[in-house]
What we know:
By secondary structure, this protein is an alpha/beta fold. 29% of the residues lie in helices and 24% in strands. A six-stranded mixed β-sheet has the order 1-2-6-3-7-14, sandwiched between helices.
Amino acid sequence: xxxxxxxxxxxxxxxxxxxxxxxxxxxxxxxxxxxxxxxxxxxxxxxxxxxxxxxxxxxxxxxxxxxxxxxxxxxxxxxxxxxxxxxxxxxxxxxxxxxxxxxxxxxxxxxxxxxxxxxxxxxxxxxxxxxxxxxxxxxxxxxxxxxxxxxxxxxxxxxxxxxxxxxxxxxxxxxxxxxxxxxxxxxxxxxxxxxxxxxxxxxxxxxxxxxxxxxxxxxxxxxxxxxxxxxxxxxxxxxxxxxxxxxxxxxxxxxxxxxxxxxxxxxxxxxxxxxxxxxxxxxxxxxxxxxxxxxxxxxxxxxxxxxxxxxxxxxxxxxxxxxxxxxxxxxxxxxxxxxxxxxxxxxxxxxxx
Length: 353
């Protein structure tokens, strides 16, 4: 069984599926469809050109296994899987084709359980057209989203907000700066003030911000800029509303007057309760199946898990995702499979086929 999953992982890693390469993504989707011929019902979707699959013998399965096939770009050599000791190297081995392979095997072996396998191809670019659409069409009681978690169970993540906000100062000649207010300098001071109160040195799970870019209409070296737009990446806990209120309180302008901002994209946080029945059941069953103590934790990043009402992230051990030395630990793929397979077997027929 382990060899089957390993060979499947190698086959998937060998497929060039860089995000946005629709032709190659479709080829990989074709491969997965063929894998289930005569085993389970397969429905194909294509939103904004991105292909995705829903594989299940149930109209609304209780449990959904979700993983993405797209990877970040890499040199040609990275698409030739290589094994060194207990490690499989190659683009996507860790993020996230080991998860795809393990979930595919679980689905193949449990076609009569109330589970579904959701395969998408835009996980590296936000997931809007894959999981973002299919999670609405297939509401479930619980979802396991295959991500590079090192066999930790992620139940909560930060949300993200990409936003442009404007700060207005007062222009003055550069030789007399005290007569004006430099919008760039003052805006930066106020941003630091806002986020200083959120800073928790004892934990990295606190709101953060990154000033990705600053622009101003001022084009003169000898003039204080009276206006500046700050492009921010804000990572928030729960809801972005408290931070938006703080920005407004510090006189940052949203669209000239109030909400909405000049430009704003919000990616919700994953927030599954730590005492959720499905989460605890999975942890208990997985630990027995793998004979391994599994850690529950929060994570700073965000993934497609945020599109589900009740979900966790779970995946194999590895390292160096998105780099030239990306790898997954082979023994951990087996544990991933054992954990998810054992939990899937508990999903009895509760939904009409």
